[in-house]
Each structure stands twice: as structure tokens, then as C-alpha cells.
């Protein structure tokens, strides 16, 4: 089967002007401008199968959005090649653009001053949608995202979360085969984030669409992606299953212990990282977990004990820290 | 082509709907347009009266006719300002348009035409009021009234396309304010905007005819007022066609490399 996304040695370098602060530096800049090359993406390689949902993780400035923009045809690569659905994105062929969508947290496809339903009619013309298919899709999205009243109000009168929902419905109205989601839940409350995640999950299952998602909310990644690609300083640090990422980068596990006597000193079993009214959280090296657990059960009267992986945010932080060391080296 | 026309029509409808949301803005824009025309009209009729009722073949009534028709032609040929395009490039607002399977040139054209229609609704009664205040002297030439329709369409297309091509400079320089100033100043004098071209020195008239600006504005205006012979009208159409072809070819040649420069900042 043809790959949905194939990226080979893809690079992007921005040439940016820079100067020191102050009037003198500004005047110098008039005569001789200092230019600097910023390598946002450095020869990255990855492949995505049709229907796969992949999380693209990295700190701010890692190169995630630049990669997504190259894949959606907005940016021209400096080097290497990207193919999506067999197309070269930078050529921005109509046949290609009809099959993809780029959803960003700051997305503004809808016309601000009129109800979203009018903009949807415009998308119908732009994407050449059959009237019946368009109506079916719109009805489906309206129901899934509970947009009944929202699409009749001018977009400017909607709250951020409401606007994001109508924007997402608009972005998917042409039923794209590949979704580039760049922080789609940015700034939304937890309930709205959950609803939008559920919507993308259903869309992926119904349409078999390929999804490449960037998000700083790990809940998005955990809920939607089995596989993650971690990028830092423009380089890929990890590409594989989310569970494998945890395995590879976690050196410790957490033991949640509920002792009968809360005053008991458990520091000899591991590093006490948290202690509240009912339980103690211990950080224990992964390989010592079976032994420490057995010791605890044998030596301390315990009401409850559980072994957990550290929060995914902590794992990602460890990966990024490793990336920083590599970049510094 | 049919698909492009369908999209153009859909964009047109959207622009009409959006403009209706801001009736006050619509009125103010029109007022600005009228104010400019009325200022020139007052200045030139005053000069004509001071010079015994005529300047370079234009009587007081013909100046009135010129600037009343000016208001109409200006509404039709107005295009997006270059500073607006600059903002879009600088802030990454082209992102949404560039991910759609249609060239932004057509999207913007549909919006522009929709905007004109709504301002046109209030334009006609205002022109009638102007005619009451400044009685025009008009020579009705039936064939010219027919010919002015394609002349206006070509003038709009030429100005719109030429502005679009010029604005592409923004993909390289980001700031195109100075380009806009240069364009505006040249057009101001050589398109017939500040005065009929007939009142300019001969060398300036020749320059105006060699550059595209006359064919974007003054030509349909002169045609509407019945001041051109059929031969001059034919030459005018030819010049419009030539400059439009030049602008379209430049657009085609530059667009792809312009978009390559795009930084796509923001969302």
C-alpha cells in the first residue's frame, strides 16, 4: 500500500535579520544588515501509513509547525523531499489541496463577520462538493460537535471554544484524507478539549484518515496517538510507539503507597517525591521495583500499593533534556 | 473555468453578506470616495470659471460631468490596497488562502466585486445628488455607452491584476509601503484621477498613454463622456488588452517563486 506521508532528508532553513538593541544598532542595520541562518528542520526522515495517527512532539521552536507547514504546501523545503498521498506538497496542486487540511489553534478560515454556515457554503464551492454529500457531512458534524445554534451566529460573537469547533467542522467539510493538526486544542478548557479529541478519533475511525498531530497537551497525544515522533532542535530524537517511548526514557517508576501508619519513614525504599494525607509517592529505579515492592509488602503494614509509570510530561521532559545535551555536545 | 466562476460567485456572495454587517463602514468608505471627487470638482470648476469658463477644452459643466462619472469609474476600478496585502504577508494571513485549491487571486477578486456591489447601491443616488449640485454637460454617444461596459471590465481587471503583481514584492521585502507610495503618486497624476489628462502638458499625456495607468481609469471615463472617436476607442481597447496580458504573464511568472519566499508565520 502507498504510504500516506513519506519524508526524506527534509530540511528548512530560515534566513533572518538580527541586530542588537538600540538606535545605533538600527542605523548600522541600514548600511549592513546582519543575516543569520536558522535551521528549523534538519534532514528529518519518517513515514506514516494510511489511517495512522501520529503525535509530533517537541518544545517550542523544535520544528514541528515548520514540518507541518512544509507538508501542507505552505513552506518550500530548503532540502530533501516530502511526499503526501503521492504528491509533492510544495507544488500545491489543486488535487492535493483537496485531500488535506491544516488545522491550527489560531486557525481563521471562517469569515469573521458572518455566520459559519455561510462560510461552509463557500467551502462547498471551493472543494467542489456534491450538494447532498455536503449536507450529509454538515449534518453529521453539526450533531457530533453540537453546533446547531453556533453555526447561525456571526463567528466574531462566538467564544474561543465555540469558534474552534466551527472552524474544525469547516476544515473537515471536504472530508480530507490527511489531517495536519497543529495545537488544535490550544487555549480550550478541558471539556472542550475532550470533545474535540473525541471528534478527531471518530473522524479517523470513520474515514480512515491519516493524522499528524502536534500538541503541548499530553492528554491529546495519549488519547489520539499510538505512535509519536519526538523532534527537538530540528532533529528527530524518537520515532515509535508511545509505550516504547516511556520504556526507553524512564529510568524510574512511581510507587504509590498507602501505609497504615502515615508517620512511617519510607525513605529507605526510594526517593519520597510526594506525601499527602493518605499516601506516599516513592521514586524507585525501574530494575529495583520488584525487590522494593516485595520488601515493602513484607516489612510495612500497607492498605494499598500501586506501581505507575511517571507522567508522560515528565518522560517527554527527559527526552528533551537528552536532546539539549546532544545539541550542546 | 466553470469551477473558478462558481468559487468567484460564492466569494462574491460572502463579501456582500459581510459588507452588509457594517453599514456604517460602507457609508464612510463611500463618503471618502465622494469627498475626493467633490474636492477635485470644486477646484477644477473654480479654475475653469476663473479662466473664462474653460480649461484645456473642458467647460465648467464638462468638469462636473467628468467628476460625477469619476465617482462611478473609481468605484469600479478600486482594487485592494498594497498595504493590506503587506499585512497579510507579514502576519501570515495568507496561510488559510494558500491551503485552498483555488488561487487567492480569484478568491480576492470575488470578495472585491462583492464589496463594490454593496457600495454601488448607495453610489447611484449620491451621483444624482452631485448632478443636482453641479449640473453636468453631457454628450450622449450611444455606441460609446455600449463600449464602456467592456472598457470598465478591462480597466478593473488590469488595475486589479497590476496591483496584485506589484504586491507580490511583499513576499521578498515584507514591507511594501514605499512601493505603494510610488504607485499611488504616479497613478494620481497619470491616470486622470486628479484631473482630466487633457489638462496635463503634452509630454505628460504621452507618458500617461505609454504607461498602464490611463487604461485603468481615464480611458473608460473618456469613453463614457463621449470624448473619444471609434478609432481612439479601438486603440484604447488594444492598450488595455496588451497591458492586461503583460500583467497576467508577470503574475504567472512571479507567483510560484513569490510563494516560495513565503514565511507562513503564525497560524
Can you offer a commentary on this structure?
The complex is a heterodimer of chains A (329) and B (267). By secondary structure, chain A is α/β, with parallel strands linked by helices. Chain A is built from 11 helices and 13 strands. Chain A is globular, with a radius of gyration of 24 Å. Chain B contains 13 helices and 2 strands, in the order ααββααααααααααα. In chain B, β1 and β2 form a beta hairpin. Chain B has 267 residues and is mainly alpha-helical. Chain B has one domain. Chains A and B meet through α3, β5 and α4 of A and α1 and α5 of B.
- Main sheet summary of chain B: 2 strands, antiparallel
| Element pattern of chain B in H and E | HHEEHHHHHHHHHHH
Residues in helix, % of chain A: 25-40%
> How many strands in all of chain A?
13
Helix/strand class of chain A: alpha/beta
Structural class of chain B: mainly alpha
Largest sheet of chain A: 6 strands, mixed
Please tell me how large the radius of gyration of chain B is: 19 Å
Summarize model confidence as the mean pLDDT of chain B: 87
What order do the SSEs of chain A take from the amino end to the carboxyl end, as H and E?
Answer: EHEEHEHEHHHEHEHEEHEEEHEH
Helix content class of chain B: over 70%
| Overall body shape of chain B | globular
Q: What is the spatial order of strands in the main beta sheet of chain B?
A: 1-2
Q: Uncertain segments of chain B of ≥5 residues (pLDDT<50)?
A: none
Beta-strand residue percentage of chain B: under 5%
